[in-house]
Amino acid sequence: MFGLALSTLRFRKGGFVATFVALFLGTAVVMACGGLMETGISTVIPPQRLAAAPIVVAGDQTYHLPPVYAGTEDEYHETAVLAERVRLDAGLAAAIERVPGVAKVVADVSFPASVPGDDGAPAVPGTQRGHDWSSAELAPYGLRDGRAPEREGEVVLDETIAARTGHQAGGSLPIAVPGGVRSFEVVGIASTGNPLAVESMFFATADAQRFAVAPGQVDAFGVLPAPGTDLTALRGLVDAQLQGRGAVTLVGDDRGLAEFAQAASDGELLIILAAVFGGLAIQVAMFVVASTLGLSVQQRRREMALLRAVGTTPGQLSRMITGEAMVIGVLATGLACIPGAFLGSWLFDRLTGFGVFQPVLKFHQSWLSAAGAIVVGLGSAWGAAFVAARFAAKARPVEAMRETAGPARWLTAFRLWCGVSSLVCGLVLAYLTITVMDGPLAASTAGPAVTLVATAVALFSPGLTKALVAVLHLPVRAVSGLSGYLATLNARARWLPMSGAVTPIMLATGLAVFMLYFQTTQTEAARQEYDQALVADAVVTSATGEISDELVGQVGGTPGVGTASAFVTSKGYNESPSDSSQDEDGVELHGVTAAAAAQTRQGDVVSGRLDALVGNTIALPADRAERLGSGVGDVITMRLGDGASVPLEIVAILRAQADFSTALMPASTLAPHTTAGVVTQLLVTAAPGTGTDQLSAALTAFAADKPGLTVADRSSLTEAYLAEEQANAWVNYLIVGLLLVYAAISVVNTLVMATAHRRREFGLQRLTGATRGQVLRMITVEALMVAAIGGLLGSLVAASMLVPFSAAVSDSWLPAGPLWIYPAVLGLAVLLTVVATLVPAWLTLRSQASAAVLAAE
To answer: Fewest Cβ atoms closer than 10 Å to its Cβ: which of 245, 426, 770, 851?
Structure first.
């Protein structure tokens, strides 16, 4: 039967091309997602500023959470990446230099240093960190012009910053450094010969020591070995020397972790995203391939009936259909590997461009992604062919001949079982979303639920299409005259082939409406929760990287100011008592000023006092305190973002919030344990009777004679908080957009194939007196009916989870987001359907009617 399968493909070019396109595009998308997953698993971060050091010593950024189910055979623990930079004691340099084979140890120290913009505008991009000139050899940087900084007040710019600021050696440049904005003499321009992800400014050693936010500590050490030293052996000796000092030695691409410690967590996020959207891509591909191949087999009913009548066994017929699908599958999946490699790299570049991941990650895609995509593509082709052949193969010859008039049986036991199971599982997840899940957790059930509902609707699509055609035929006739009459007659006779066109439209509209409103609803819910928790009317930010207690007091005394509070954010982990429900995300920590917090957040206090937030103290949310079994007056141990283990006395218990739960600490206690090392923001509330505009004007006047201070409204903090949410939104928009383009192409693909197959039908209509215009108008009405049915079913699929998801994350059953999204999606679906139907119909009608009637089916 394989030879027969090859022969039939020669005369079924339309079905061949349609199935080929569906498999080709689906395999390419799946391969691209596989490349993203491989990149996340490997997490290759090539070194940049430390590339010239074969061995790098850095602080250990990993933290092993307390074990879960401790003492049992199910015991396990998770590993987290600490949120802040873990610095090392500068004295370790002497210990490393004593190791045999070490020629030189170079310390890398960084501190805030930025070029302020004009008139209080944000700092010039790329100028956030300064370094000691001695660390320039670790890149290695070389002087392109000028000389090295030798005295205080001198600076060397890298060539990117020099080009961006328009400065060359010999001029002066104002730079915001700890302590204020100062003028520095540009004495040189440095270059590595290759662009780096992060630009740098280099200062004299005296300045670097003065500006360091953590005196006596360094970010990392670059170890330069003596000539001829074995690196593997040297690394072992350095490890032994540093054992128990919280340091790790890094070689190869792992050295990049010393510069970009948080990029390691980006790899984990990339794995999750690739898995989620890869699974969605596989499901879409299976839907599309099954729909396309099923429609192709339906269009060959007469051929299948004749083969059964002349003695072809069910097994032979099934093998023929499967053989055709596998021939197309091998060709399509093999060729799809070429664009799949480029598509994965393109997707990764877009994600880094949107700020989802740091651009230091290296995209990696091996043959494993191609092999996995090919297996998925061939599996989809085989499964779709197997299902499509079941009906034709099981029919008896006489029944098969009768089926040529239009099959009436479509609901098999297998289809019924799969459809009901998918629908029940989807409804269970929807129920759990409403009753159990809160806030961000609702997303974990909403996504799988909508795909299960879409699966059920796709399986029941023939019956739903037949029922909706029956409902629509009277209204359509009433508004469209003769064209509608002919269209509804055709639709009632051809409901099964029509369902093959309805399914991809349902899938495209359902996914588009759900994913777009899912993201806008999630973003708006996060915005509302943060706004409710944020107590500030204005924000004062220092470009110099420090807001002192004296400045807090000065702002608090400004006319029109009610309260002024230092503000620091970080993350930590409950270490003792242990919280078994704690994950790698840890505890959100906010550093505040006690007096201001007591005035503005007293309503959130369940017990204790916020004005007691002084020294090593903390205010915990009630739900977390309950899990720890701790209350006011108890002492807990928390692992802060820089790895320090700090005992903290609980001085207050806060009302728990489902979606935005934070613990409060004194800003002066939390700030030294952050990467910046200092307070950089000040939250200000207006005094009673003072409007926000008046407050902003008063603060702007206060900051006018203080270089480096900028004033913004509370929306700037909200936008900063939502930056990660917006980055994730771009991920959804990009990946879903790609899948929707694939679904849209499949819609066009299916409709073109379905319309082109009706050449004989159009010829008969013209021979019986219908004009080309009448046939085209009939086809237009049919296309609108297909689009209406597909759009309606897609809307129901989207609503099945948008409603419970919205109820779970907000107080409304209706999703948040622009109203134009829904009509825009439906309008695009209608446009695609009409164009993809009319164009092939118009091309078909160009031939002579008599020739069309004699054409092969």
So the answer is: 851
Q: Is 9 helix (H, G, I), strand (E, B) or coil?
A: helix
Tokens of 370: 């191609």
| DSSP single-letter state for residue 212 | -
Question: Measuring CA to CA, how many Å separate 761 from each of 181, 570, 777, 833, 837?
Answer: 81, 69, 15, 20, 15
Residue found under tokens 């995509």: 373
Tokens found for residue 260? 């970009």
For 45: left if phi > 0, alpha if psi spans -120 to 50, otherwise beta; the answer is beta
Both structure tokens of 620 = 């915990």
The model carries a pTM of 0.71
Longest Cα separation, the chain:
100
Closest CA to 361 of 723, 48, 39, 61: 39
One-letter amino acid identity for 560?
A: G
Under the banding of pLDDT at 50, 70 and 90, the label for residue 85 is confident
**Residue 405, pLDDT score:** 45
789 Cβ contact list (under 8 Å, min separation 6): 464, 465, 468, 469, 472, 498, 502, 505
Res 650: pLDDT: 92
Beta-ladder partners of 156:
188, 202
Q: Strand locations in 252-387, DSSP E?
A: none
Cα distance between residue 168 and residue 256, in whole Å: 30
Half-sphere exposure of 658 (CA within 13 A, CB side): 13
Is the pLDDT at 112 greater than 90, yes or no? Answer: no
For residue 37 the two structure tokens come to: 């997953």
Tokens standing for residue 635 = 């002492």
Residue with tokens 């360091």: 212
CA geometry: angle at 739 spanning 738 and 741, to 5°?
Answer: 65
Closest among 770, 771, 758 to 853, alpha carbons compared: 758
Residue 520: CB atoms within 10 Å: 17
User: What is the sign, positive or negative, of the torsion defined by CA atoms of 32, 34, 40, 44?
Assistant: negative
pLDDT average, residue stretch 631-646: 90
pLDDT digits (tens, 9 = 90+) for 526-537: 777 776 666 778
According to the model, what pLDDT value does residue 523 have?
Answer: 78
Q: Which helix (H) or strand (E) holds 568?
A: strand 561-576
Q: How far apart are CA 719 and CA 726, in angstroms?
A: 9
| Beta strand segments in 94-171, E | 102-108, 110-112, 129-132, 142-146, 154-158
